[in-house]
Amino acid sequence: MRTNHEIDYRIYGEELQFVEIELDKDETAIAESGSFMMMDDGIVMQTIFGDGSQQQDNSLLGKIFSAGKRVLTGESLFMSAFTNTVMDKRKVSFAAPYTGKIIPVDLQQLGGKLIAQKDAFLCAAKGVSIGIELQRRLGTGIFGGEGFIMQKLEGDGMAFLHAGGYIVEKELKQGDVLKVDTGCVVAYTPGVDFDIEFIKGIRNWMFGGEGLFFARLQGPGKVWLQSLPISRLAGRIIQYGTYKRKEEGSILGGLGNLFDGRE
User: Fold this and answer.
1) Contact 187, 117 (CB under 8 A)
2) Helices vs strands, H then E, count in the chain
3) How far apart are alpha carbons 9 and 104 in whole angstroms?
4) Tell me, what's the pLDDT at 174?
5) Which residue in 20, 35, 180, 247 has the most C-beta neighbors within 10 A?
6) Portion of the chain with pLDDT greater than 90, in percent
7) How far is the first Cα of the chain from the last one, in angstroms, to the nearest whole number?
8) pLDDT over 80 (residue 77)
9) Which domains can be identified in the chain, with CATH numbers?
10) pLDDT at position 248, please?
């Protein structure tokens, strides 16, 4: 038996997705502020402190502390709760903030806990707790690409994450090791050991363009990876957005653009 609300869902789209959640009477979905897309008549929205889970202390101080933890993970102080107040089923939809994929995860099947990057959470069934997970290793916190603080999802309901590009799910057995770019780690189950590994070879880390470290993930457990971290996409946009074309202020600048491919 689940203690969290049971919800049905459907994901629409390919690259710019949204998730449609079907609610029975008195069922509630919680979501990040700003992720709401549309809802049927009969659903009531309420802005709440924290996540509204049973794990949350409902006193004023407890709510402030819960909201403060969310700020540490880069999220808003508030969350939105959407409750069906009529007898018939009603639907509410939440949209992804940028191109990528929505990842549905059933926490009951994952042992009740999932660790994710700070801005991965999109929405969930009411009862799912959204907290913080501290990196225990100094090196992982500094160089792991996610900082010392990550999101922790706990409960036995459905939760939905979002990440950039294509998403791949890997099942690591005991002792299996996977080395990935530090920015590509979206989420992993608690049994996975998350560490960093220094890239060997002076030429590799000086001229390879991949940074100084790999993220080293060792099983057992599940890992979700993204092909396009939003930080990488933002870096490319800034790079091209601030690039000064050679033709600006130069008679022969157009020829330079042709040679370097920057038309």
Assistant:
1) yes
2) 5, 19
3) 9
4) 95
5) 35
6) 47
7) 60
8) no
9) 8-241 (3.60.160.10)
10) 44
